[in-house]
Design brief:
Layout: E1 17-19, E2 22-35, E3 38-48, E4 63-65, E5 70-76, E6 79-88, E7 99-104, E8 110-111, E9 124-127, H1 144-149, E10 151-154, H2 159-163, E11 173-176, E12 180-181, E13 184-188, E14 196-198, E15 214-215, H3 221-226, E16 230-231, H4 235-244, E17 246-252, E18 255-261, E19 267-271, E20 275-277, E21 280-282, E22 288-295, E23 300-306, E24 311-318, E25 322-324, E26 329-330, E27 339-345, E28 350-355, E29 362-364, E30 373-378, E31 381-382, E32 391-393, E33 401-407
Parallel strand pairs: 3-6, 4-7, 6-8, 7-9, 9-10, 10-11, 27-33
Antiparallel strand pairs: 1-2, 2-3, 5-6, 12-13, 13-14, 15-25, 16-26, 17-18, 18-19, 20-21, 20-25, 22-23, 23-24, 27-28, 29-32, 30-31, 30-33
């Protein structure tokens, strides 16, 4: 038992450990390790307020709240403590009316009673746990003004889990975070090649940003700055994007461009950034001109180009005088195992669609004239009763699946 007490000084405060501006109580010792005469103690901890629980609490945070998932404290030359946050305790972050953002680490599995309730000005809540943290309490997880107005961001493929979880399902707006590589988000558009595209232009800080205008001869800058897992696309890869996605000219946040939707319903936005000649902008807001790494002839290189009426991948432009944006593509290996949904009609029609693991999909079922739906089955289970107004929504799809439809 003496090992449990090593390195812990008695404190009048209502917490065991302070790390930065955050306060924690130890829950359980999970492991001890003695390496090279240094004893390391591993603990699960809960986040708490400085005063602790219901004993009185003050506003501690303003702006973003983002407690660490794990942290290490070296107590002495031969003692180290490694802490993992697994629970948010009563009133831990409850009374912080000026806090605007909250990020819950992926290690958290439980939120107690009123741990988050009284954060009144939150506009953004991010929960990185793939399994929604449990909140079994008669108290609300968040007050209604937060669940009505703030956006909840959750890991990719986990939206449906949060939509059905106690407390979390109260959020009106739940958005999945895009997966990332080297800190840069990418999107899977369900392309035949499995290629993954950046959600932003190179050098941009948001999806509608124009980013950097590069000379063709400096395209290797992308791999140098983003890492070897990223690069500029070939003109063939742009062509695959054109031929296998739906392109819709639109405006997002006042920026013109194309909404590109894959057959798996994922999408990205390609802003009409135009191009530059000798530093002077051309066609901004009305034209798309994106370098590929494919060289043409006579000092010209291929571009994805177009306007609101059409796009093409067969035009070459002067690589010596033009600067243009680039939409990077993933060159590294990403573990994205393809998952397919097969839609089969008893009349003989059959199609196979690549889907994003963890997502659900809604399908409009339209019988031919003089017929109606006889039955609908998902993976062999009759789901006819779940068809509403001619639409059926699948559960989250994580493995290859089958949707069968019969008319009579």
């Amino acid at each position: 038992m003496s090992l449990l007490l090593l390195g812990f000084a008695t404190s009048a405060e209502a917490y065991d450990v302070q790390y930065g501006n955050y306060y924690f109580n130890r829950i359980a010792l999970t492991k001890t390790q003695d390496v090279g005469n240094v004893m390391t103690y591993y603990y699960n901890v809960e986040a708490t307020s400085k005063e602790g629980g219901y004993s009185g609490f003050s506003q501690t945070y303003s702006g973003p709240i983002a407690p660490p998932a794990t942290f290490t404290i070296h107590s002495s030359s031969n003692e180290t403590y490694v802490y993992t946050l697994t629970r948010i305790a009563d009133m831990a972050f409850a009374n912080n009316a000026s806090a605007t953002e909250l990020t819950i680490p992926e290690t958290v599995t439980e939120i107690s009673d009123m741990g988050l309730l009284i954060n009144m000005d939150l506009t953004k809540v991010t929960c990185l746990a793939k399994v929604p943290p449990v909140h079994n309490s008669y108290y609300l997880l968040f007050i209604q003004s937060v669940t009505d107005d703030a956006t909840l961001y959750v890991p990719n493929g986990c939206k449906s889990a949060y939509q059905s979880a106690t407390g979390w399902r109260e959020f009106r707006n739940i958005v999945e975070l895009a997966p990332s590589l080297g800190g840069h988000e990418y999107v899977d558009l369900g392309l035949p090649s499995g290629k993954l595209w950046s959600t932003m232009n190179y050098g941009a800080t948001k999806t509608t940003g124009y980013g950097n205008y590069l000379e063709w001869y400096s395209l290797n800058e992308i791999a140098n700055n983003w890492g070897s897992d990223w690069g500029s696309p070939t003109i063939s890869e742009y062509a695959e994007l054109v031929n296998n996605c739906t392109w819709t000219w639109t405006s997002q946040g006042g920026v013109n461009g194309y909404r590109i939707q894959g057959r798996n319903n994922n999408e990205m936005f390609l802003p009409a950034a135009g191009f530059q000649i000798s530093g002077y902008p051309q066609m901004v807001g009305s034209g798309i001109y994106y370098w590929s790494e494919t060289a043409g002839s006579g000092g010209f290189s291929y571009m994805l180009s177009g306007s609101s009426s059409s796009v093409n991948t067969y035009s070459t432009y002067n690589a010596s005088i033009m600067s243009a944006p680039v939409r990077p593509i993933v060159r590294g290996v990403v573990d994205v195992t393809p998952v397919y949904l097969t839609i089969k009609y008893t009349e003989g029609v059959k199609m196979k669609q690549r889907v994003t693991p963890g997502k659900s999909y809604t399908y409009k079922i339209e019988p031919t004239s003089n017929k109606h739906i006889k039955w609908v089955k998902f993976n062999g289970t009759d789901v006819t009763s779940q068809v509403v107004n001619g639409e059926y929504t699948t559960p989250a799809i994580n493995n290859d699946s089958m949707l069968e439809i019969s008319f009579e």
